[in-house]
Design brief:
Shape: globular
Strand order of the largest sheet: 1-2
Number of helices: 3
Largest sheet: 2 strands, parallel
Number of domains: 2
Helix content: 25-40%
Distance between the termini: 52 Å
Strand content: 5-15%
């Protein structure tokens, strides 16, 4: 059994709980146990955001170095086709 800790995003928790319903219906493995936690109580919840940002920037051609620093501990798995948003132009100083 593996534990998966999801960031509680109060207004979006119902969408995340749909994942749990899919598991109970047998659509997802039962080898995972899910729990929700607030970021102020679990400081390591920022790690997935860091990895997702590095992958997104790498794919958009904005920053290859960040993902390269993580390659020895991160495996990127494509699970479906996705359309990446076009990168925004950097804003100048006001």
């Amino acid at each position: 059994m593996l534990d998966v800790l999801l960031e509680s995003r109060t207004h979006l928790d119902s969408e995340d709980r749909a994942l749990l319903g899919a598991q109970k219906a047998g659509h997802l493995t039962r080898e995972l146990r899910y729990a929700f936690e607030r970021p102020n109580l679990e400081p390591l919840l920022w790690l997935p955001d860091l990895v997702a940002g590095a992958v997104s920037y790498s794919r958009a051609g904005l920053d290859q170095q960040s993902l390269e620093h993580l390659q020895h501990i991160v495996t990127v798995v494509d699970v479906g086709a996705a359309t990446l948003p076009q990168p925004c132009e950097p804003r100048g100083e006001p």
